[in-house]
Amino acid sequence: MATLELKQVRKNYGNLEVIHGIDLFINNGEFCVLVGPSGCGKSTLLRMIAGLEQITKGDILIDEQLVNNISAARRGLAMVFQSYALYPHMSVRQNLAFGLENLKMEVDEIDKRILEAARLLRMEEYLQRKPGQLSGGQKQRVAIGRAIVREPSIYLFDEPLSNLDAELRVATRVELKALHARLGNTMIYVTHDQVEAMTMADKIVVMNDGIIEQVGAPLELYNKPSNKFVAGFIGSPKMNFIQFDYLPNSLKEIAPSNSTSLGIRPEHLSIKDENSLSLNVETVEQLGSDSFLYGTTSGEQKISIKLNYQTDIQANQTIKVGFKLDDAHWFDKDGIALTS
Amino acid sequence: MSAVIKFFSRTQGKNKLSFIDWIAYLYLFLGFLIIFLPVLWLLLNSIKSQFLLQKLDTNLLPLDYDRVVRATVFGPDGKEIFIIKDLPDWVIYWNELRDEDKKEVNDPNLFISKFEGKEYYALRTHLGLVSDHAKELIEEKNFPEWLIKYPSMFPDAKKEYNPEEYLINLNEEEVRLLSEFLGLKPYKPNGFTSQILISAKNTETNEIEEYSVSRLNTNKDTVNARLISNPQGGIVKIPTEDIIVNKKLRPSWINYSDPLTNNVRGMSFDAIKCLNNSVFVTIIATIITVLINSMAAFALSKYKFNGQIIFFIIILATLMVPASVLIVGIFKMVSVTGLNGTLWGVIIPGAATPTGVFMLRQYMLTIPDELLEAARMDAASEWSIYWRIVFPLALPAIAVLAILSIIWRWNDLILPMIAVSTTKTAYTIQLCLLDFQGEYVAQEHYRLAMTVVSLIPTTLVFVFLQRYITTGIANTGIK
Amino acid sequence: MSENILNFNYWYFVIFIYLFIGFLLSKGVIGNISRLMSVIGWPIELAQRLSGTKSLPYLFLFPNILIFGLFTFLPLFMNFGFSVTDGESINFSSRDYSGSDNLSRIILETQIDTGIENMEDDKFKASIADTFIFVLFQVPIMIVVALITAVVLNREIVGRAFWRAVYFYPVMLSPVVVAFLWTLILKRQGLLSQTLMEWNWIDQPIQWLTDPSWTMFWSVFIYTWAHLGFYMLILLAGLQSIPKDLYEAAEMDGTSDQRAFWRITLPLLMPILLVVTVLSLIKAFQAFEELFALQVGWISLVSYIFETAGLRGQKTTFGLGIAAMASLLVALLLILLSLLQFYLTRRQVKL
């Protein structure tokens, strides 16, 4: 059980700075998800927390202890890797025992912990197998089990679900959440998938280009994105952005001053005249439960709409779409959200 | 010409064996013969007896002739040549026995007591009993001491003495003995050579009789032979096509068993010691090579550090200056480090191999770094990451290196020549064989057998582990 | 030897102390193998505990680099030392500086010490000339035969693994064995002479290995015989890396087989062919062990060095210096060839 604090953490590769001064506090027992597009520095940040990468500047504190110069082995953390990084030449049991042996733990204690973890993750039957003989989901469990037996203060996850198929990913997501509820440890989870972030996190940290764009609870980010990047990153399908110049005059009038673009989520658009834009439909996708319309409005601004019913609108039709003013997001020229 | 070029082409229709296929198989088969006939010839020669090898036998199989001995005895009646049959091997090869071995084998005195007359004289000379018997006689008769030294005196010194006067009162046997010992006329040292027994029709009597032959050369039209029943009759020429040679398939296993049981007669060739040395060098050097090369490869492939590329280039640069051109310098360094004359002088200088480091590094680059990071998170020390994670995962490449190292070390000649060439007890098998070639020309049968023994380890490795070697060489392109 | 402070008994002592410290430090390590490895690697573990991971790569490299330093780089400098000094001793303290005398001894027409005609330079120059003749014939023959064999083995042939093994087998034989094998056949009264005499092709047995008109032929033949498999294997790997669909495409285009060989196989194989050529050049210039054991009728460069150095007994006043000077010249040649090889394989190395 531990807190984690980052103070102005920076990372340089040669002259190139990839992490530009990160400040972050993660509470005891929190499930914190670092999310962002690939290359945003979230994995690097996680590896710096783990101690696998040196930090160039700044401080990392675990439980208010400075750990900058403490090796990965002694920070008391455990990490689940994207590729699982199971030792291919060792059996599952040896994989779990390896870390404990390195800590010179008693054999009895090692056995006890392995059995507990195996029971918790339901992997008793394949303790003697080698990783090569396991399915993707089983490997995933072993990787998590290897973290659990260490009884770490903080769990680190580096995109652990990205190698699983879609169905298994959903199931594992639920299990991980349950595991967090049971263990109650601080967990830091890196992903590029905003759905994972939204479904699992207590706290989401959205990163882009080596800086933190916004920190908050999932719904807070969805409802009140603090900038255009977060607004576009959180939510699926992506939020529509329409440049101010191409808005109908009726909308220009109600916009806050300085706004340069309007953001509106596809699910908040509906077929109606109020606050409306005229849309030239190009493609219609019918999923049964939902329908998606894609088209352009004046000035070739691309718009997508999600309707939660089946529609008879056809391609090449021109329709009017509108929204509630509360659902509109306005951004200034720097992409900062404006309050209307 | 176009057929030859066509034969280079790679793909081939699915129709039945074409002309080109026939040439391909013919080529392969010819290659097979050129490669395996010499090896086969060595194998078959290694079980031929010393006698056959000396007679330059060209049969593939060890078909041994029946042997007889041709003896020459000198006496008052002049030279007498005759044949002795059915002598045991140790008598025939008495001159090649070492002194200590001579004492171990059967008692020559007892043996010759079964003979008499000229056969007795011939055998007495051959078995080196003349001087012993003569000394006994001199003591018994109280003759002066200088008689014992007389045979080894310079001719000038001999003039001062007159040994003839002591012969006067002796009986005929004693005269012969003393004369043979002192080299007085008409007696001379008696001759004794081993020959082949053949049968042929006697041109005079038209009966099949036995002859002895010193050399059989089937190229020649006639064979020079001596009639056994009348050896004094001189050499007769017998047409080669008329002779009947009695041959038996008689593999000479003692070629192997004698050196391997340290029972080699007539020389200081310790095959067991040499083989032990080679086994020791091969095993220890391979362990050290695998250990230190994989450590270096680990550092070069899994860390980022200052001078990494320089170290790598230094290691590869050693490929350029092989031991064979640094002989003098290596000899000096082996002496400076005090390793000369010990097997460690063979093991250590060759333990670091650029090939091994290069090969292992290339392989270790393919081991994901995440595994090492996982181990670091698991609180493993860097040393245990090396030997518990990277070493086991690099085993396929390490196996290749180990096998190559075994072959290099077993076959190595240059390092042993530099480090232990003046210390016989530290000779490896290759050095022993080479040394043997120079020293004991007459013992070729042992040398051939030991050459075959020296082939066994590498051949076993080849038969069972060929796959590793071929992939290893194909992948690195370095031997 | 006993006065040498670096006597090997002293090494035993050092190794014992090393392992003993390791034994003490590894207390508490569970498992026999783990304990053994701790005993061996204790300096690395200790260094990590004391000063982190910074120094570790150097420690991992240390044993290897130490041996390279002691037995490859220092000998190179020692060779320099020997090449500019005279004397029978290998101790530099009892050797006299002689500058370029040794170089003069192996290249000048007159003996610089006595002023009479120099014999050493003839021997050296003969060994250079003979070695070049050897290389000139051996390398092209080896490459062509290896290429033919590789191409044949790359066809769809029954028992390809067997044939490949057959051609590779001589590579496993030691030079001494190769030499004995062929001596048995090629000596004066060996199998070849006897067989040819039986067929009445020759009247007198021939000393194939030392006869001046045959010695080079058989040297090239035996050396090629012994090393062919190695180069064949590399070329075969190269052939197998050529994508099969290229040939299928060529077949679809109606390309004839020989055209496919000249236009597809050979160009794609060229990089490997170059590497193999340089590699075999390097090896051929070093040819020594087989030729030495065969007692052929000419002296190769390395044999010259070995015999002149007199390490096996018969030492001469200038032997060591002359041998060292000759080695430096050979080393220079080999270094140039190796640089060429590095240049050709630079992509494979991935610095």
Task: Explain what you see.
Chain A has 340 residues and is an alpha+beta fold. Chain A has helices at residues 42-50, 92-102, 107-120, 136-149, 166-183, 194-200, 218-223, 228-233, 249-254, and strands at residues 4-13, 16-26, 31-35, 57-62, 65-66, 77-80, 154-158, 186-191, 203-208, 211-216, 240-243, 261-264, 270-271, 277-286, 291-297, 301-307, 318-322, 329-331, 337-338. In chain A, the strands form four sheets. Chain A has a six-stranded mixed β-sheet with strand order 6-7-8-3-9-10, with helices on both faces. A five-stranded antiparallel β-sheet of chain A has the order 13-17-14-15-16, with no helix packed on it. A four-stranded antiparallel β-sheet of chain A has the order 2-1-4-5, covered by helices on one side. In chain A, helix 2 (92-102) crosses helix 3, helix 2 (92-102) packs parallel to helix 4 (136-149) and helix 3 (107-120) crosses helix 4 (136-149). The longest helix of chain A is centred in the middle third of the chain and has 18 residues, at 166-183. Chain B is of the alpha+beta class and 479 residues long. Chain B folds into three domains: 2-45, no CATH class; 62-252, no CATH class; 271-476, Orthogonal Bundle (MetI-like fold), CATH 1.10.3720. Chain B has 23 helices and nine strands. The longest helix of chain B is centred in the C-terminal third of the chain and has 33 residues, at 444-476. Chain B is elongated and about 105 Å long. Residues 8-14 of chain B have low confidence and may be disordered. By secondary structure, chain C is mostly helical. Chain C folds into two domains: 1-54; 122-349, MetI-like (MetI-like fold, Orthogonal Bundle). Chain C is built from 14 helices and two strands. Chain C has helices at 8-25, 32-51, 56-83, 101-107, 120-153, 160-172, 175-186, 191-198, 215-240, 244-252, 257-285, 289-294, 301-309, 319-349; strands at 85-86, 96-97. The chains are: A alpha+beta (340), B alpha+beta (479), C mainly alpha (351). At the B-C interface, helix 1, helix 2, helix 13, helix 14 and helix 15 of B face helix 1, helix 2, helix 3, helix 5 and helix 6 of C.
